Amino acid sequence: MAYRGSVRPFVNFNPKHDAEILHKAMKGIGTNEDTILMLLTSRSNDQRQDIKAVYKKAHGKDLVSALKSELGGLFESLIVALMTPPASYDASQLHKALKGIGTEDDVLIEILASRTGEQIRNIVKEYKKEYNGKLEKDILGDTSGHYQRLLVILLQGSREDGLGVENIDKDAKALFDAGEGRFGTDEEPFITILGNRRVEHLRKVFDAYEKLSGSELEDSIEGETTGNFENLLLAVVKCVRSVPEFFAEGLSKSMRRAGTDDSTLMRIMVSRSEIDMLDIRTSFKKRYGASLYTTIQEDTDGDYQKALLYLCGGND
Asked: Model-level pTM greater than 0.85?
């Protein structure tokens, strides 16, 4: 597999050297934001953790706390996000979504629909470690109905293996019979099939469904379900089809309307920078006709903008 992230490990990495550069950038009057953002956006997350450890050893204080005391606003939030290990960052986003006033369902949906089984299992571990609670219990306390059940299935992070060819048509028919093929909707097959089957299998099921019904599964979901349950089902289907396309759409929505949804913009740019940012850029350009780079340029400003553009990694 070719590497599809925009941020890759820095080749001649020297954490001691980097820790000193950051220390100097924060020393004395004024802070050199350019140095901070250029250095941190050109190191991988693992490398940033090494810099953090070396900095503490050399200066007897936490690098993230030092950065927070020197920076402010969206730029500070972005740098803190970059300094956080991925599973811990996702856990913090979920905790914030569940523990604030009301539930930020779009965050639960985005993370649980798009992460791999292994990523989800790591998030659950981190959540327990950092918040002394079970993520599942907190989700149960904050959600309900079919939506809750599908979230809990996704939270298990274990899609089943080895379903034979004969099950493709069977699953497609079960989905058709549960939605378009009847009066009213039977949500059960949507929950169990979309929640448990492997991605490769589901792609074939979607094709078979289209042959059977003459329309895409998304059309049926939009016609048969509503609210958070509908949004979660659509997110799962989109991620099965193409995770980069799912995130290209998320980025477009975060910017291309009145007011920027910075928390979503930041979360996607940070969490995909070492995974599939190059593919997200390709999807974005193909779908919206403009590059992700110029869209970020038009929608943001200052050091925050510069750092996001480094994470984007280039114009298309």
From this structure: yes
